[in-house]
Task: structure prediction
Amino acid sequence: MRPDLAIVGGGLLGRCLAWRASKAGARVVLYDAAGSRGEGSAAWAAAGMIAPTSEAIDAAPQIESMGRRSLSLWPQWLSELPVPVFYRGDGTLLLWHREDAGQAVRVQRALASRNAQGHLKHVAGPELGELEPALGTRFPRALYIAGEAQVDNRALLQAVAIALSQSKVECHWETFVPDGELPNAGIVVDCRGMGAKRNWPQLRGVRGEIVRLHAPEIELHCTLRLLHPRYPVYIIPRAEGRLVVGATSIESDDHSTVSVRGALELLTSAYSVLPALAEARILEFNTQVRPALPDNAPAIHFDRQRNVLHINGLYRHGFLLTPAITEEVLAILSLRDKSSEVVFAAVQDDLHPCL
Result:
């Protein structure tokens, strides 16, 4: 029987869309060139941050609004997965060294211009120490954004793969689908990211480098972000004493291993925030190439001739935007149960911005 939906690309967005469409009653088939663990996707090397206000500092205002919707959806989604996934919503601390105090002023002005400054709280002294004791007295003040969250990216990818299996979604892992051999389905959704560059001439790669550490002696609660004009860095706590430190941002589609410069930038900046990291153990260096469009915002394009819906350009906002984009796609497809059949409405616009 021909499926209602064939999704090509089983990274974060593709597998989440397959999962949610299946829950809505669609007959779904998923194809991915890599395995079910998600190791071939940009999300495998990501930090899993869900931080709409932090991203609003430099991103378009619509990114923040979509991110807030995703932030509200993630706890619900995680509660519906068959296995637990590490998630923490203790907020973000924005930090700066004394010589970079101008960066804090810039951040406040940027958020004020977008009516997002209300999400910031100035913390100092004992209050800052209570929020994040591991910082000691190194930073006299900071900006706190309550409620921002992060999720274990790899555990999430694997949990969604288990959910797909339990839902009897037909998954073709380690199956490369060429452009000219798209599967037969009611609608084909192309979520291949950089793999779909032929269909998106303006798509470019943005390389990110990231390091994972084991530092059981350092107990963090919040996500830490260093405000710096050249070397911004974030430090994210994970379960079992692990930390994720990232990420460089280089205009390149180079998939090679982490450069010496990237490693030095990440580790030096992180050490300047937490000197105790000197005794941490390096578990892994990794890289990712994130698909970005000229405005660094996602978009949807419908190819009427081939009946293919293309989604791309999530840039560095995969975890921030995936639930909101998934909702948008299901709404575009008008996925609904009617006489035990799933009906897909015609997509009205050839080019549909997600924002």
Remarks:
- The chain has two domains: 5-55+152-202+295-353, 92-146+204-291.
- Residues 32 and 173 are 5 Å apart (CA to CA).
- Confidence is low (pLDDT under 50) at residues 336-352.
